[in-house]
Design brief:
Blueprint (H helix, E strand, L loop, with lengths): L4 E2 L9 E3 L14 E7 L4 H16 L4 E7 L9 H10 L6 E3 L4 H5 L7 E5 L4 E7 L4 H17 L26 E3 L8 E6 L4 E6 L4 E5 L21 E5 L2 E6 L4 E6 L4 E6 L12 E2 L8 E7 L2 E6 L4 E6 L4 E6 L9 E2 L8 E7 L4 E6 L4 E6 L5 E6 L12
Parallel strand pairs: 3-4, 4-5
Antiparallel strand pairs: 1-7, 2-5, 3-6, 6-7, 8-9, 9-10, 10-11, 12-13, 13-14, 14-15, 16-20, 17-18, 18-19, 19-20, 21-25, 22-23, 23-24, 24-25
């Protein structure tokens, strides 16, 4: 928490603003509670905060202004074009300030991604919350503060004028993974996680659309192909007549039964969960940003990016359990349940060797989980949370 102090200004020559016609000053924001969201687009925990901020914006549309302060960690995140792509990919509709030199980060003494800072209607810093906030207490607390300020005549509610970039569309929008559809004749068909359309698409070898699953709007609905709903699916893997889907935005694992034209949820509650433990029934297991899947018989492996773990769903018993990682974030090898991972986001299985390879994105590393006893994690490439290469080799 901060003591009461005047907030530094949000304008500067090196700052690029998105979703508004012009840069906003603190004077422009007077009379409303301002939430500054310090984030970077590689950070899974930053992505989790966006849904909480959306609820707050919808609950207090005239009393609260959310401004994202994009504070890049990696070199690629300093590129404004990449930031614009991330804003579109995550459908961020509030103003975003791109701060490639971390000027505002330092001015506000921020030390962690994500961090929320709160400015009172008269431009004073009144508090901060590092990490992922608890949505319900935060929303209640904001409502109480707004009520108090209204009683003191400090509020001047007003909707912020926002600019939406023109929506570009095509067959796919921000696709995640593509995998061969098994049983379709030597890879003649392909399944694609069409993340930006909240759908899964089946294509033929010429790239022509064969089938599409999901209604096209973000949601969490089990039904047939046209009436079901996904939310930002990133990964998938195909079995005989089925497609397993990493439904990232719903923190769930879904099943598309191609013969029955039916989508069902195998694991996940729709809400972001805490650390994996288990085993526990899939219907009760709260997952966290399931990013990719691999399959070996009745064993469905998943990257639980939001808790920095790997997990397993036993398809025969529908039980979920932790496979590797403590939920701490780092790059530390060792026995699988003692190792530390950092946002695993891609999987590749060598079934013969019994090795599950994974891209540990936050550490820019490639690591391997030995599935045989004694199970352990080893790093093939990568060194640390803040180490990354600009040139291969």
């Amino acid at each position: 928490m901060f003591g009461l102090s005047h907030a530094p200004d949000l304008t500067g020559n090196r700052l690029r603003w998105f979703n508004v016609e012009r840069p906003l000053s603190l004077e422009d924001l007077r009379g409303r509670l301002v939430i500054l969201d310090f984030w970077t687009f590689c950070c899974i925990n930053c992505m989790h905060v966006l849904s909480t901020l959306k609820v707050i914006e919808e609950t207090f549309p005239e009393e609260v202004v959310v401004i994202g302060i994009h504070s890049p960690k990696f070199e690629a995140e300093r590129d404004a074009a990449n930031v614009a792509q991330a804003i579109a990919r995550y459908d961020i509709r509030h103003p975003v300030v791109h701060d490639p030199e971390m000027t505002l980060w330092r001015a506000y003494s921020v030390r962690a991604w994500p961090t929320l800072l709160f400015l009172s209607p008269d431009g004073m810093i009144i508090g901060s919350v590092p990490g992922e906030p608890d949505r319900l207490p935060l929303t209640r607390g904001i409502g109480k503060m707004i009520g108090d300020w209204k009683g003191k005549g400090m509020m001047a509610p007003k909707r912020l004028a926002l600019r939406r970039p023109p929506k570009t569309d095509g067959l796919l929008r921000f696709p995640g993974k593509i995998k061969p559809l098994r049983g379709a004749g030597d890879g003649k068909l392909w399944a694609v996680a069409d993340s930006g359309h909240h759908q899964v698409v089946v294509l033929d070898d010429d790239g022509c659309e064969v089938r599409r699953f999901g209604g096209g709007e973000a949601g969490f609905i089990d039904s047939d192909a046209a009436n079901s709903a996904f939310h930002n699916p990133q990964g998938l893997i195909c079995g005989a007549g089925v497609i397993y889907v990493a439904d990232t935005g719903n923190h769930a694992i879904r099943l598309i039964d191609l013969e029955k034209d039916e989508i069902v949820t195998l694991a996940g509650t729709g809400e972001r969960g805490m650390a994996l433990g288990g085993p526990e029934p899939g219907s009760e297991a709260a997952l966290a940003s399931v990013w990719d899947l691999e399959l070996a018989g009745e064993r469905l492996f998943f990257a639980n990016a939001g808790t920095h773990q790997l997990g397993e769903l036993d398809l025969a018993s529908n039980q979920v359990r932790s496979l590797a990682g403590t939920s701490g974030e780092d790059i530390i090898d060792g026995p699988s349940m003692e190792a530390l991972l950092a946002q695993p986001s891609g999987l590749a299985l060598d079934g013969k060797a019994g090795t599950l390879y994974f891209a540990d994105s936050e550490t820019s590393s490639v690591r391997a989980l030995n599935l045989k006893s004694p199970s352990r994690v080893d790093t093939l490439v990568g060194t640390g949370l803040f180490d990354f290469g600009a040139i291969n080799g």
